[in-house]
Fold this sequence. Notes:
Helix content: 25-40%
Number of strands: 8
Shape: globular
Structural class: alpha+beta
Order of helices and strands: EEHHEEEHEHEE
Amino acid sequence: MISVYIKVDYCEVRDLKIGRIVMDIYVKIANESDFFIIKNFIPLFRHYIGEVYDELPNEYGVFAYDDSKTLQEMCDKRESWIKNPETKFPIIIYAFNRPVGYMFVSKVYSDVFEGNSYFLEALFLVKSVRRKGIGSLVVKQVFDKFKGKWELNTSASERNLETQSFWRKVLNEYRCGKYKEFAAKTEDGSEKIIFRFDSI
């Protein structure tokens, strides 16, 4: 699979123990040779999600959706993301010339997913680069790259107010307020705030 880079505008970032710098931010669709980078981030993401949902680890001490016995087993199950390059887009986020997070974007079909074309399944940035404008820049560029109808959701929990505010701010900037937001329960019974919008 050919590597695909999405160039993101330059951005000033401060206070990362290296003073004020101007840096280049970009994302890359992962392939078999570098998907391990995303696998390195997955345990951090799952621990973060565990805090948002006030979850306990499973019986083996792993913050996982299932009964994975090790972090390796949990991460290996995500390799399906590089087996279907037409519908699955595992994206590595880079800043400071190193990976700092990832996104999972999937292509969906109208008869299955209420007319939406793309679903953002995950967005994760390491804590040291949050609140720097990086996430906002990156997701807007990805929305532009994958034209169509989009859906994303996030927990409706009061523990998740920061993320809820992040998406409202991003979508107000990106679509000038032209997006739909509503609360609903997902198949697993969890309360979600769902956002739908067009990137056409």
